[in-house]
Amino acid sequence: MGIVTDFAAELPNWRERVSKLLQESSTVKVDEVTIGQVYGGMRGVKGLVTDISYVDPGEGIRFRGYTIPELLEILPKPDDGKMPFVGGLYYLLLIGKVPSDVQALDIENEWKNRSEVPSFVFDVLKSMPRDAHPMMLFSTAILSLQNESVFTRRYQEGMTREQYWEPMLEDSLNLTAKLPSIAAFIYSLKYKSGEYVQPREDLDWGANFAYMVGNPSDEYKDLARLYFILHSDHESGNASAHATHLAASTLSDIYYALSAGLNSLAGPLHGLANQETLRWLLGIYQEFKGVPTKEQLRQFTWERLNSGQVIPGYGHAVLRKPDPRFTAQFEYAQEHMPDDEIFQIAKLVFEVVPQVLIEQGKAKNPAPNVDAISGTLQHHYGVKEFDFYTVMFGVGRALGVSANAIWSRALGQPLERPKSLTTAMLEEIAKKAQQPA
Ligand SMILES: CC(C)(COP(=O)(O)OP(=O)(O)OC[C@H]1O[C@@H](n2cnc3c(N)ncnc32)[C@H](O)[C@@H]1OP(=O)(O)O)[C@@H](O)C(=O)NCCC(=O)NCCS
């Protein structure tokens, strides 16, 4: 299999680099931690490592060193689309090199061959309450596949540590292959006929999702590819990536680990913000029976802030500029759906909200993040049920976190176990620091 051989070829160099770094420099200081950070969600503490992607506060994400516009330019594309194959992006995340057409299609074919979802997954989903949130269904479906784990079986049989990465890669291909089908089935179960639509042999991973949720137009197929690429990774400290990594650091398999990551993606401060954003935009539309004036929107924004709510889709824990994932989707909307009224509201929000947040003076970053726009595009192309959007986010995010999990295993990253202190201990540390030297 191409991807296994290519991964194996990259590995010796990485193992050597990491081992040299640890042997020669493991006591070199990287960072210092303040009481504010200990009590403040470890914001900004440099305590994780990943080579898959990096978020620069001013520039935004780079995947394996490439910006989003660069990626959209250089990754192989299907004949019927302007957006790259998601399989090519997965190759890049896994191997660190831009794939050829053959290498991108190799991943797409691996996914096709592994895409069949066992029938018990559908039975599990059908047995859930009708009003269950799609994210609970998605996480449960993934967890229910856990007994398929090759890693867990081979671990029990007694493989060596050097071999860990291979079944982890095998599991990750098996799992990611099924995600568009599982997500589309959840969509059908919750909002449509409840029938399972089989993926088509002639469509790639992203396009198949578009087809299975009921919009096989070339524009929506491209948007699906773009969406999954943009949501795939955001370095390792965000909650879904970190939760996946933490769970996997116990040597639990990718099914357990991804389910853990998705459970944290389901919170309103993280992935759920995309559904909250569309809810807010539709609320504006209803309130003003269309697109409001700037002044009306300003006032509406202040009312929301004064009632103690955040403005969904704005602010970020790391970024300090507009998120390039926002910009890529904004440009897509500008090109394909400039007259859509909800998009016009999202545009107006982009003009008004940053200024209001600056005036309020709390948010460190008043600019939009990825969630400020993603739902608007889905809504335009007919996927209007916004409870479902975080599932789509999760389909994309699985690519980055699984690539990270495979590399963690390949490089022997250990169990994650930071140290905690009591408040009394912190008070003591603070007291000592205040005493004159
Ligand atoms: C993303 C987010 C959770 C980052 O949190 P953070 O790192 O703590 O952000 P900050 O350090 O800038 O927060 C400082 C203050 O500004 C507030 N703030 C940040 N973003 C805000 C927003 N969009 N609207 C209103 N207030 C906001 C915070 O709630 C916090 O207030 P507090 O001091 O009363 O607790 C935060 O910006 C937010 O809640 N945004 C809206 C939800 C969202 O879009 N989430 C998706 C993220 S990809």
Describe the structure.
It is a single chain. This protein is an all-alpha fold and 437 residues long. It has a single domain (1-30, 50-412), classed as Citrate Synthase, domain 1, CATH 1.10.580.10. 59% of the residues lie in helices and 2% in strands. It is built from 20 helices and two strands. A two-stranded antiparallel sheet has the order 1-2. A hairpin with a 3-residue loop joins strand 1 and strand 2 (60-63). Helix 9 (165-191) runs antiparallel to helix 19 (389-410) and helix 12 packs across helix 19. The N and C termini lie far apart (64 Å). Coenzyme A (COA) binds at residues 43, 269-270, 273, 305, 310-317, 362-365, 369-371.
The biggest sheet, with number of strands, parallel, antiparallel or mixed sense and barrel status, is: 2 strands, antiparallel
The parts where pLDDT drops under 50 for at least 5 residues are none
* Strand elements, count: 2
Number of domains: 1
Could you tell me how far the N terminus lies from the C terminus, measured between alpha carbons in angstroms?
64 Å
What's the Cα radius of gyration?
A: 22 Å
What percentage of amino acids are in beta strands?
Answer: under 5%
Number of helices: 20
Provide the succession of SSEs. Answer: HHEEHHHHHHHHHHHHHHHHHH
Bound molecules: coenzyme A
Helix amount: 55-70%
What spatial form do the alpha-carbon principal axes imply? globular
Main CATH class: Mainly Alpha
Q: Could you give me the name of the CATH homologous superfamily?
A: Citrate Synthase, domain 1
Order of strands across the widest beta sheet? 1-2
**Structural class label:** mainly alpha
Mean pLDDT: 97
